[in-house]
Write a structure and sequence with these properties.
The structure holds 2 protein chains of 2 kinds. By secondary structure, chain A is an alpha+beta fold. Chain A has 11 helices and 6 strands. Chain B has 4 domains: 181 residues, Multidrug efflux transporter AcrB transmembrane domain (Multidrug efflux transporter AcrB transmembrane fold, Up-down Bundle), CATH 1.20.1640; 78 residues, ACT domain (Alpha-Beta Plaits, 2-Layer Sandwich), CATH 3.30.70.260; 89 residues, 2-Layer Sandwich (Alpha-Beta Plaits), CATH 3.30.70; 148 residues, Gyrase A, domain 2. In chain B, helix 6 crosses helix 8 and helix 15 packs antiparallel against helix 16. Classes of the chains: A alpha+beta, B alpha+beta.
Amino acid sequence: MEFFKKATSFPFMSTRKVWYGLSVVLMVVSIGSFFVRGLNFAVDFTGGVQVQASFPSAANIDAIRAGLAGAGFHEPQVQNLGSSRDAVIRLPAEAGQSGDAVRARVEGVLHAIDAQAEISSLEVVGPQVGDELRRGALVAIAATLALIFVYIAFRFHTWRLSVGAILAVLHDPILVLGAFSITYTSFDLPVVSAMLAVIGYSLNDTVVVFDRIRERFESSRRLDPVVALDQSINQTLSRTIMTKVVTLIVVVALYVLGGPALKGFSEALIIGIVAGTYSSIYISSAIALDCGLKAEHLLPVAIKKPVDDLP
Amino acid sequence: MEFPRWKYWLVLGVTLLALLFALPNFFGTDPGLQVARKNHLPMDDYARQGVEQSLKTAGAAWTASYLDEGKLVLRFASVPEQLKARDLVGDALSGEYISALTTSSRAPAWLRKAGLRPMPLGLDLRGGLYLLYQVDVNGAVAQLLESYDQSFRRTLSAANLPFIDVTTYTGPKSTVPNALRVALPEGSDVLAVRDALRKSNPDLTFDVDSLATGPALDMVLTPTQVKARQDYALQKNITTLRNRVNELGVSEPIVAQQGIDRINVQLPGIQNSAEVKDILGKVATLEFRLEDSQNNAIEAEQQGRAPLGSKLYKSQGRPVLLKRELIATGDQLTNATSSTGNEGPEVNITLNGQGGDAMLRTSSVNVGKRMAVVYIEKSRETRMVGGEKVTRDVTEEKVISLATIRSVLSNQFRITGLQSGEARDLALLMRAGSLSAPIFAVEERTIGPSLGQENILKGERALVIGMLAVFVFMALYYQRFGWVANAVLLANVVLLTALLTLLRATLSLPGIAGIILTVGIAVDANVLIYERIREELRNGVSPQASIRIGFEKAWSAIIDSNVTALIAGIVLWVVGRGAIRGFAVVLTLGIATSLFTSLLGSRALITLMYGGRRKVERLSIG
């Protein structure tokens, strides 16, 4: 079996304005939603209480919400989790909260609805911890991007590819953020780690394309950059699609079978992998081209050789 | 197409070793019970028989039992059996033994004897209690000042130097109290006082000051002294928490420092969190003080202040005046046990040399007078005042016993007049040591055992089905080469499991997710190589040369692309914490193992199939 029996020759570079346009629209929508709607931060980041409860039959979300409000909890958020019998309850941070006090109160409410309801997990995160985790997540993303920029600049001798790689890579977590903001899916710590994995992973494709670009220039340094880039992307296309398909297989398995605890995590991975594949095919090399990428940028040592020596 | 022989052996050897180390993880676990001696001595076969005999007569049934690291481990077929046995140990053997719920591996005995164990499971997979404590390091400084305060008073009284009072204040350039001021009466010899204090506290510096009431001496702690005290408090608290956790009998607990002033406590299997947290977080200590019988306590209560050198307390609703000087404190205690004597529950106290001497000295000249045992507990109270959160530290001081000294006391004596539960908790707290600074839970997670079980099942199923789907896809798409990739993928999972087991990493749900993601990533290197081989074949290169060129040319792309993924993994490892770090560890190690398996392992298999001198017409690469 082979999806790409014939060598492809899609004109990625000449059509790049279209892809830039598409990306700009997606970015604007994502960032817009991020600022307008915001993210549905989980207790990891906001501080507060998160309770997972399971019921013997379908959980009555409205009754739980009303019961909690009646018990004096402000703005209780109640959602189904994974199945109709499981519910997740999120309560805002309160001063001097202790897990046991909250457990007793929530248990009282749940038992009034169904005596067999059970609390399967309970988390209390202090607001200070939430702030720190949020800061830690930002630091992690910034540090990853900075290190990757340095690595690409070092490995390929040119900042032009670094800029292309970083912009293409920034593109992916922003889309994940946008998707989480638009669907208002709970944004927790595992989602952040999925985003970092996406950054590393999406770059993987970009780097493979760059590697091929270098190889193209090595074999013929007078090659027109537009042609070299198009050839490189086309030649690596089957590999790029193939690995992403295989990774998506396992991540979809994780999404479907991994249970509610990994839902957000695998969702972020799915969005990120699709976005990453798109950005490494359509965006990263195109940006490098618009930064003025030429053969000599990738092969700086060879420039010193006098041209006359060539046979 | 050459592949050196030693590389075959390397691949084979590493794979076999990995299989061996990973093996214990594939047997699964049963509910278990760990029984240990209360005095921490290792259990021997004799003790084991004793415990087993009494459990058997009480009707408990277990499937296997063995001694492990000085503890008896019993394995049960079901959770009810396990709980029943735990209750039996609690009822019948609680005098000598302590038990803890655990999970016990079904791996055969020879693996265990060879020191091969499965990875411990994280709280999200086995249920338990996670606590993140904030240590009030400033409280530790306050305690240090308090002890200097005591020592100054003692020194000055002993040297017959009169003073008005010793007070705590906030020194310049500090936001928290870090200084003491000794106020002296008008006309005192400040320098003599300074010399006396300096002599008994050579590491402190004193400055002469003057107040409206007369001269004074100021002592400000240096930043180094403050920092040293804070570090000490944190380390001492970790030790104390560890002791308390051990006293509670939890199997495989984790008590570790996190950041500069936090302590992370993980207690697998604990469900009754209220009781446990109450014991863990208690900042309690004892003080032994003499009663001030020269002054009238009722008068002092009416006036609202105690005479100089005394402090007003309440004992069973009645006011009592105690002398400010301490005879001994809970820190000087070497052992505390609870028992039931003639006068009801009691705590038997043993003091160390210093405390014992002080007790002997004081009691010998005070027979017939009364001595009080003061129980001090600190907690933090948060309440809303005018819409704003206000936290304040509350110190509760309770006179738990006020008794006449009948004879000279030495380093061993009893405290009576307690409730049974009180006596037991007090003895435990005293034994485990006091916390040197108050702690407050800033994060708390409890995970029920059934949720943990469900998480394991779901994680395993996602892994197995995900891998099977990849196997089918690879076999269809790359045919024989696909099977090579599948073998290599499997080897990668085994290698990764072995590595994690060797490193004693804790397996959590994000860790399982990391293993699943690694499967996806490990495929990548093979796909890069195979696509390259196909490309060479399309260009008309001979099969064997295509393989060689494919591996050669894919090399730099594989390295570059893995390094970038590695960067993300390592950053997560360094910055992340808890479960996120678990994911990062797996991701990072997975990248490393996948490099090994795909560059060496798949090369070895393919060379075995197509290498040597045989003539290859076409490759089965789809």
